[in-house]
Amino acid sequence: MGPRSSHIALIPDVDQIRNETGFSEASLLRLYGRFQTLDRNKKGFLSRTDLQQIGALAVNPLGDRIIDSFFLDGSQQVDFAGFARVLAHFRPVDEEEAATRDPKDPEPLNSRMNKLRFAFQLYDLDRDGKISRNEMLQVLRLMVGVQVTDEQLESITDRTVQEADEDGDGAVSFLEFTKSLEKMNIEQKMSIRILK
Amino acid sequence: MPSRLFFDNLGAILTYAVVGTLWNAFTTGVALWGLQQAGLVASRVQAGLLDFLLFGSLISAVDPVAVLAVFEEVHVNETLFIIVFGESLLNDAVTVVLYKVCNSFVEMGSANVQATDYMKGVASLFVVSLGGAAVGLVFAFLLALTTRFTKRVRIIEPLLVFLLAYAAYLTAEMASLSAILAVTMCGLGCKKYVEANISHKSRTAVKYTMKTLASCAETVIFMLLGISAVDSSKWAWDSGLVLGTLFFILFFRALGVVLQTWVLNQFRLVPLDKIDQVVMSYGGLRGAVAFALVILLDRTKVPAKDYFVATTIVVVFFTVIVQGLTIKPLVKWLKVKRSEHHKPTLNQELHEHTFDHILAAVEDVVGHHGYHYWRDRWEQFDKKYLSQLLMRRSAYRIRDQIWDVYYRLNIRDAISFVDQGGHVLSSTGLTLPSMPSRNSMAETSVTNLLRESGSGACLDLQVIDTVRSGRDREDAVMHHLLCGGLYKPRRRYKASCGRHFISEDAQERQDKEVFQQNMKRRLESFKSTKHNICFTKNKPRTRKAGHKKKDGMANAEATLEKPRDLGFQDTAAVILTVESEEEEESDSSETEKEDDEGIIFVARATSEVLQEGKISGSFEVCPSPRIIPPSPTCAEKELPWKSGQGDLAVYVSSETTKIVPVDMQTGWNQSISSLESLASPPCTQAPTLTCLPPHPLGIEEPQVPLDLSADPRSSFAFPPSLAKAGRSRSESSADLPQQQELQPLMGHKDHTHLSPGTANSHWCIQFNRGGRL
């Protein structure tokens, strides 16, 4: 890391963040360094523009949605705690930690459920707990090239929703979403190695 | 070769190259000597410890040619590739020094070797490697400097590149320095400047010629190897030696890799895991360098030469053939985790893609490659001094990273717009009479097929019948469609250097599409939030925009104009300028160019509101230089969406966009004057598209229901401008850029709702094709 952050004590509320997110010291330092790099004007928090300036996100179909996921409840700023909290979802799952966990404690942020919940929220923009057909259509439109026409897209959407929807309400609830992905190795697919 | 990745991993590469090679050499030599002492090697092989050390030093070098050949087939992740490849490049110095030192020791006889000779040996290692690198850098500097002035003599540019690079090689050879290092450093050092300076045609010429020459050279080398193997007068067989060598090189390489990796992982951001280590040790192929060195041995001094020759031939054959052929299945086998017994459902496929994209995005947020203080410093130094010295004036101004991405994206856009011209817009029902339908529907074949085969799969679910077979057919169709249409997440596993082909980049097209859509969406969301708010920051923005432009930032303004104004636009088109508009951020801070983010894509839409004042909506978006497609001269097809990675190769594929802001024409004209143009047929007939200003649109609107798709359609018009285009085309000389304006930011059908209110803050995107003033 650069000369900017070298001590864990410089991070505000570091203990609380560590408890919540489960990051190691090294990871927190790294993240804090990154936070400061992104925070151009040293405001102490990140705004949307700061995140938008990460170029790679501009060519990622879901880039904007990821950015939005950092800003909860319509706020326009995210501080380091919020930043770390979102990124905690992508911490690799530690099996022994999962085994020794006290079942009464709240689930750690990087559990399978929480990872799925994070992904679900990327689809479900209006936060009504369901992915409606429209929302699915929007996501598909984002991820599919321009050569697929709208009619084709609509039929794909219908099909997708149909597959996952079990109670027939035309929308995919979180449970249905989870069920449709039970065979997928979420723990691996949504983990970043360096965020131990 | 991806230089950014190379320098990121330089520590690891150097460790493996220097320490690894030394380790290999010594252990192999000593082990073989031990083998001889143990009597497993026939006594007719008269060799002492020094001889074995000599042999060990020449057999331990990993060969870049072989590595490249093999790894291109095996698509390992790029970090692994660059480490092995970098190691094979840099260990040349070590090998040469070791070989020379051992050779001279052998010649002197082991009794005469003194301590000072060892010290001299070590010192010569440094001299050889650093000297070789220095020679390379000197020639890189020369090359960059000379190409700066070749504007009028474009034809000699490829020649210059080849000659100076070869001269670097020869000079290093002459001075007994490491020639491979010299050539490597020459290439690495001059790439950025030379690419900016030389014309596109030259770049292509160099690239293709290099590939051809490289292929020829490798073929010849391996042919020589094969022929020598058959000529039995040159070698003598000893089983113990051969088998022992084979075993030891494998064993000690693996051991060395494991040990070094363990040490390196303490310091690395991304640790190298077991699979990486296996691939690294198994991928250490020996090649022609070892063979050349062994042939050069002096038989009088080294009596066991023939046995060494035989062993070397066997080793090279074994590593290249056996290891080379089996590495791919090995990699596949090691990575196999799950086996698919069932066809994945649509849901799973879709979500898998989603997750991949999410992961890529979060990795980028986290900044996988971290913050590098020294690299930042270097880039600042480079920007201030080197680039000014070595790059052509105009290229330097344009060179600014920000501009590059935008620029290149616009080119892609232009091409694909023209390519898909009939396709994209025809789907909205609009026909383009003057547009040649050059539909390259390669990637839309399935779609096409489905659409054109009238009796094909019925995709309308409403009409679906419950017949089982129909549903299955639909299933397949859907899967095809989805698979074909989905954007691919950023590739993390791919070979960086294609040796035998220069691939087209579908990834670039995808990037461009996604980029456009994202930008559009951001603009729209911004518009809707800032709607009807009058900003008085226009003037300072314009001035700042002008100032920014002088700094080479990509700036453009799209101003909304009445049609009559557009008619008199002889200059080329209008750039889209979107400036940042966050209140909390101060103005000046946005104009700084940061390393990580590179380009500030600045687009501003000002609307000439009928009643209200100007609405300027703006925000700044900085795509990072990672968008840039790879350098053409080096066949590096790294898709560089890693932070700041990859030099910004100004890879002008066929069109250059000339985007001239309305009020800054002369400034822009000069700065774009030296852009190369490659006129390709499609652009000759590109029409001028103009977006009508809100006024007529306001009139239209009561009649036209607020239909999403109708608006953009109706706003495209094709004034007869071919005459003008023709005229202006004749004005432009071959050297001047053909301008192709494009920016169908509004081309996509998926517009958000254009309410009558927001119609005021409309975009005027002038699609113009004109010559330069």
Automatic annotation (TrEMBL), chain A:
Annotated localization: Cell membrane; Cytoplasm; Nucleus
Pfam families: EF-hand_5 (PF13202), EF-hand_7 (PF13499)
SMART domains the record matches: EFh (SM00054)
Gene Ontology MF term list: calcium ion binding
InterPro entries referenced in this protein's UniProt entry, alphabetically: Calcineurin_B_homologous (IPR051875), EF-hand-dom_pair (IPR011992), EF_Hand_1_Ca_BS (IPR018247), EF_hand_dom (IPR002048)
Alphabetical list of PROSITE patterns matching this protein: EF_HAND_1 (PS00018), EF_HAND_2 (PS50222)
Domain EF-hand, first and last residues per copy: 111-146, 152-187
GO BP field: protein transport
UniProt KW keywords: Calcium, Cell membrane, Cytoplasm, Lipoprotein, Membrane, Metal-binding, Myristate, Nucleus, Phosphoprotein, Protein transport, Repeat, Transport
GO cellular component: cytoplasm; nucleus; plasma membrane
PANTHER family: EG:114D9.1 PROTEIN-RELATED
Record-stated family: Belongs to the calcineurin regulatory subunit family. CHP subfamily.
The protein, known as: Calcineurin-like EF hand protein 2
